[in-house]
Amino acid sequence: MTAVRCTMAQALVRYLCNQFTIVDGARVPLFPGVFAIFGHGNVTCLSEALEAVQDTLPTWRGQNEQSMALAAIGFAKSVQRRQIMVAASSIGPGALNMVTAAGVAHANRLPVLLLAGDTFINRRPDPVMQQVEHYDNPTTNVNDAFKAVTRYWDRIVHPEQIISSLPQAVATMLDPADCGPAFIGLPQDVQEMAWDYPEAFFAETVHDIPRPRPDRGRLNEAVRMLKAAKRPLIIAGGGVRYSGAGQVVAAFALEHGIPLCETIAGKGGVTHDHPAHAGPIGIVGSTSANALAAQADVVLAIGTRLMDFTTGSWTCFAPDAKFISINAARWDAAKHRALPVVGDARESVEELSAAVAGWRADASWTQHGREEFAKWNALLDGYQKPSNEPVPTYAQVVGVVNRHAGERDLLIAAAGGIPGEVMKNWRVKAPNSFDCEFGFSCMGYEIAAGWGAAMADPTRTPIVMIGDGTYMMMNSDIYSSVLSGHKFILIVCDNGGYAVINRLQNAKGGASFNNLLKDCRVKEAFGVNFTQHAQSMGALTRHVESLADLGEAVEWAKTTDRTTVITIVSDAFAWTPGDAWWDVGVPAVSARESVREAAAAQQEGRKKQRVGV
C-alpha cells in the first residue's frame, strides 16, 4: 500500500482539503475555510500546514477565539448546514474562549469543527504555560471542558489516530440526528510527529447528507391521528430549513388546510405572506399562532426540539392536545408523549402528504387561522406606525429596516430585546433570509455571524440588529469584516443597557437593578459613541435620530463598499405585546410585596403546564 509521510498536522489539513460535498448541483469543498488565532500550541505545526494550502483552504484571522467560532456557526446557518467551517485555537484560554461558541452550535444542532492545541503527551515540559493542572488526574486539561458542549470529542495522542477520528467527526457533523460541533484536541508534540499515512486516507471524497425515511408503522399512526383531527396545527422548526423542506411543508399545509406557525429557528422556512402562514409561536411569538395553539387538538411538530420559548413553558396548548413529532433525532421526536416519527423532514412530509391525499382540515378552521393572522398583521401595522414620541420603539425601528431590506437580505439577531421584536415584526420576504440564534441566546453571536454569513454568500447582504449591550460585549469582528472585505450592515439600537432583562426583572416584581446603566453602580451613566468607535475599526457609520432618517441611512448603507454601522437611540420600555406565559424562578419569600405577588402568579401559571418529559 502506498504511503505518504507527513506530520500529523499536515495530514489533518490534507484530509480536510480533500473532502467535498454537493450544493445546488455543484461540487464544493466541505470545509471551505478556517478561522484561526495562532499561539503556542498551534503556531509552529498546524499553522505551517495551513500556510502551505492557503490557496485551497483559506485561513481567516479572527480577533477573538469565541467570535471566530461564532462566525463559523453563522456561516453554517447561512448555508443550511451543507458546509462546515473550522475554528482553530492555541491551548488554554484560547481554547476555552471557544467553549461558549461550542454551546451555541450544540444547542442549535449546527456543525463546526473545533481544533485546539493541547499539552504535551510526553509531559516532559509540564507544566507548560497556560496549562491547568489537576493533581488527581494529569490527563485532564481545559480541553475536557468541551465534552459538555460537543457532539464528538477526541484528543489525538498518536498520529495514526486521525485516520479513524476525522471520518467519525465528519460523519457526526453531517448526520441530521447527531449534527453539532466536533472537537479534536491536538497535543503539541503529536502535531509534529511524522507518520506513514495510507494514500487512500487522502482520497477525494464527496459527502452527502443522509435523508432517513420514517418507519411505516409510525407514519400510518400519524395518518390516523391527522385524519381524526378537527383543529390541526403545524409547528415548523429549524429542521425544516436544514432539510430544505420549506416548500414541501408549506405546500402540505396549503393542500390540507392546516395553519402553519414557526419556531424561532424555523422562521424563514416560508415567507410571511404565504397563505398557510399563521405567524411565529410561543413567548416571542404572535397572538395568532398562540391562539391557534390553545385550540389545536393535534399538533404536527416538524423539525423542532420544542424548547420553552416555543411552548410557553408548555402552557401554549390545550391539556388534551395530541402531538405528532417528525424529527431526524429520536431524542427530539419522543418529547412530551408525542408520536415519534423519526426521519428527514422533507421525505417524511412528502410521504405523509401522499398518505393523506384528499383529506383536508375543516374549512372553518382554516379560515379561522387566516382571520387570526390578519388580526396579527393589523396589530403589527399599528405598532410599527410612526408616532409623535421623541424616541422610536424597537417595533418601529424593525419595521423601517424590514421595509428597506432587499428581498434576500439576511436578518441576524441573537440576544436582548431584539429577538422578540424581530420574531414578531420582521416579515420574511424570501425563504431562509432570517437567522435569530435564540437556542442559546448568545450575546456576541450577531456581529461575528454577520461576518461569517457575508463570507458564505456574497450575493446577499447580512443585516445585523443588536442593542448597545451586545455591541459592548463583542464588536471586534466589525474590524475583521472590513479587513477581509466581507460587508454587512449593522443596526445598533441604543436603549441604555440591558433593557429586556430589566423588563423581566420588573415584570416579576423586582426593582430595576444592575441592568440599565442608570441603575448600575457607576460614577456617571454616560453613553458610548458607537459611530466613532465603529469608524475607528474601518467601518462606515451614521447616527440617526428619526425613523425617516433611518430609512434613508439603510438605503445609503446598501450602496457602500464595506461594513456599515447605523446607530439610533431607542425606547427601553416599549415592546410589542406577547401573550404566552414563561416559567422562571421567582423568590418564594421576599420583603417586596410586588415580588410576593409575582411569585403567587407564577405558581398559578404552573398549574397550566403540560406534564411531560
UniProtKB/TrEMBL annotation:
The Thiamine pyrophosphate enzyme TPP-binding domain, residue ranges: 419-567
Source taxon at top rank: Bacteria
Keywords, ordered alphabetically: Thiamine pyrophosphate
Annotated ranges, domain Thiamine pyrophosphate enzyme N-terminal TPP-binding: 35-130
InterPro entries with a match to the protein in the record: DHS-like_NAD/FAD-binding_dom, Myo_inos_IolD, THDP-binding, Thiamin_PyroP_enz_cen_dom, Thiamin_PyroP_enz_TPP-bd_dom, TPP_enz, TPP_enzyme_TPP-bd
Boundaries of every Thiamine pyrophosphate enzyme central domain copy: 219-352
Homology family: Belongs to the TPP enzyme family.
Alphabetical list of NCBIfam families matching this protein: myo_inos_iolD (TIGR04377)
Protein name: 3D-(3,5/4)-trihydroxycyclohexane-1,2-dione acylhydrolase (Decyclizing)
Species for this entry: Acidocella aquatica
